[in-house]
Recover the amino acids of this structure.
């Protein structure tokens, strides 16, 4: 289990109540653009505020610290939403591009619902220095 900045991730990129998958793609070179795709299933009849943060993993530890918020968004309400175990979730995904950190190292892209930070998903990435 990872813990840091109020975010607890049960397992890397494991699905949650809303989030199904998080995939980060790009060159993974310091300062280069990266894109993540967040796949979700929204069962609720209300909008759900989400956020994604870039976290830095300290070398040789499980300690993480927040670097910056890379996304704030709201998932639209499910028009036929209801109780979680009764509603048919609306499946969708969103993409967002952000700059890779300037320093090489291990990082985590972590997305969560603003009202329940335990409802989270994360993907660890490794950033390398630019070629000489």
């Amino acid at each position: 289990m990872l813990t840091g900045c109020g975010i607890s991730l049960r397992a890397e990129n494991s699905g949650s109540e809303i989030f199904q998958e998080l995939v980060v793609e790009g060159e993974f070179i310091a300062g280069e653009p990266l894109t993540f795709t967040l796949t979700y299933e929204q069962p609720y009849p209300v909008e759900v505020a989400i956020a994604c943060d870039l976290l830095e993993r300290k070398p040789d530890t499980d300690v993480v610290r927040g670097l910056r918020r890379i996304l704030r968004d709201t998932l639209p309400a499910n028009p036929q939403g209801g109780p979680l175990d009764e509603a048919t979730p609306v499946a969708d995904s969103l993409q967002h591009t952000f700059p890779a950190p300037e320093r090489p190292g291990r990082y985590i892209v972590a997305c969560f619902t603003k009202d329940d930070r335990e409802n989270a998903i994360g993907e660890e990435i490794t950033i390398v220095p630019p070629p000489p």
About this structure: The mean pLDDT is 85. The domain at 2-127 is CATH 2.60.40.10 (Immunoglobulin-like). The longest strand covers residues 64-75.
